[in-house]
C-alpha cells in the first residue's frame, strides 16, 4: 500500500493564500501537488491511496483525474491525528498489504529514489518549525522526537517505508495515535535506513511553501527565469521584448511603483540574449488561485476591487496626448487578421479537423463580426497600460489584499517602446481569465465534445464572473459587450502563439467560438 497522507487541511496562514485545501491539492506549476507526488512514487509497484478530509468537496475534475491515474480516495473523519489517520486508512483499504509506504501530503522530493526496504527520509531542517528531530539512543538505535528545532538539525522529512505495517499500527495505537512515536516504536524493533539524498521540498508551511514552489517554476519556451532567494532575472533571445518590459518598469510614475516589484537591474544585452532583474516576490499568481484554489466570494470581491483601483490609478496618470489612438486600434481586428492569415492553410486545416466553423476564411469572418461590437479608441480609453493584464501576471498579496504586476508588454503595435494604450485591452485580458477561462486551458483542465468546450467548477467560476462584472461593467467605464468582443479576438489571435501545443490550440479555437456565440447571444 502506498499512502499519500492528506487528510487534514493546510494551516490557516497558508489557507489565506489559496483557500481551505488539503495539502496534496496545493497549486504547483500549473498542477496539483498530488500529481508530482504520484510521479515520484511511480517506481513502487503497489496501489496508491490518497487520503482527504471527509468534509472536503473533491472537485469533479480532480476525481476523474485521480481515477485515470488509478489512485483510490480514502475519506478520513475530520480532526484525526496523523497516526490515527494512517491506521484508519490501513483498515479502510480492506487489504492486508505486505508493506506500507507513506508520503506526507505536503512533501515532495527532487532527485530522490524511493526504496523497497525499511526506510525513512531525513534532511537538514530549514526554518523554525516543530519537526520530528532525529536523535540517537544509547543502543545506537534512532529515536524521533517532535519538537522545535534549529536550522541544520536532521529531521524526518516525510517519506516512510515499512515492511511490517502491523508493527507500525501497534506502535501508533500504543502511543495514542501519535505517528512519530509509532515510527520510533517500529525503529526499535526493525532496522530502518535513513535516506538523505535528493532535495526536500516542504509545502506545509507558508514560508517553505513559497520557497519550495520557487524551485518548480513554469516558463514559456521563449523566456528563461533565473530565480534566486530575492531576485528573478528574466532573459530572452527577443531583445526588444526585454527592453520594452524593463522600460515599462522604469517609466512608471513613482507613486504607481507600489504595484510592481522593484526593478533591480535594468536592461542588459549580450550577443545572443537580453535580460533584466526584479525582486522575486513570494506570492501566488491569480491564475493558480483561480484554477486550483478555494478562495471565498468575498476574497474575490477584494481582489477585483484592488485590480479595478490599480487600473483607475493607471488611467489617472495617463497623458492622452502620448497615446497614438490609431496604433491602439491595431490591437484588435488588424492584429487578429494578420495572425490568422499567417496561420491559415495546411496548419489550420490539420488543427481544425472536422470543425466547420474553422475552415478557411471563416475565422477571419468571425473576427470581423466581433470587431463591429468594439467602438473606436477614444481619448477617454487611454491610460498607462500593462498590455498583458491577465491572471498569470497578477500576483496576489493576501496581507494587503493587493496585487503586484509583472511581465508587462511595454511596446506598441510597431514594436516601439510605449507605456500608453487603450485600457479596455487590459480589462479584456483580465476578463479572458474569468469569462474566457484562459488559465483553465493552460492548466489542461477542460473537456472537448465535438465543437463544444467545457470547464470544471462551472458554478463557482460563473459566480466569480458575476462578481467581476459588478465591479468593472458600469455605464461610465467599461461595456461588457465590447470586452467580450475583444475576448473573441484575443483567443483567435493567441492560437498561432501556442504552436508547441496543438491540443491547447484546439481548445483556444473552440473557446473563441464559445465566446463568439455568447457575444451573439447577448443580442438575441
Spatial extent as radius of gyration: 26 Å
What is the mean pLDDT? 92
CATH class of the largest domain: Alpha Beta
Major β-sheet profile: 7 strands, mixed
CATH topology-level fold name of the largest domain: Aminoglycoside 3'-phosphotransferase, Chain: A, domain 2
N- and C-termini, Cα separation: 57 Å
* Helical proportion, percent range: 25-40%
Number of H- or I-type helical stretches: 19
Write a brief caption for the model:
The chain has 524 residues and is an alpha+beta fold.
What does this structure look like?
It contains 19 helices and 24 strands. Strand 23 and strand 24 form a beta hairpin. It is α+β, with helices and mostly antiparallel strands. The protein starts with a strand and ends with a helix. It folds into 3 domains: 215 residues, Spore Coat Polysaccharide Biosynthesis Protein SpsA, Chain A, CATH 3.90.550.10; 64 residues, Phosphorylase Kinase, domain 1, CATH 3.30.200.20; 237 residues, Alpha-Beta Complex (Aminoglycoside 3'-phosphotransferase, Chain: A, domain 2), CATH 3.90.1200.10. The strands form 8 sheets. A 7-stranded mixed beta sheet has the order 5-4-1-6-11-8-12, sandwiched between helices. Strands 14-15-17-16 form a 4-stranded antiparallel beta sheet, covered by helices on one side. A 3-stranded antiparallel beta sheet has the order 18-20-21. InterPro entries: Aminoglycoside_PTrfase, Kinase-like_dom_sf. Pfam families: APH. This is Aminoglycoside phosphotransferase domain-containing protein. It comes from Granulosicoccus antarcticus IMCC3135.
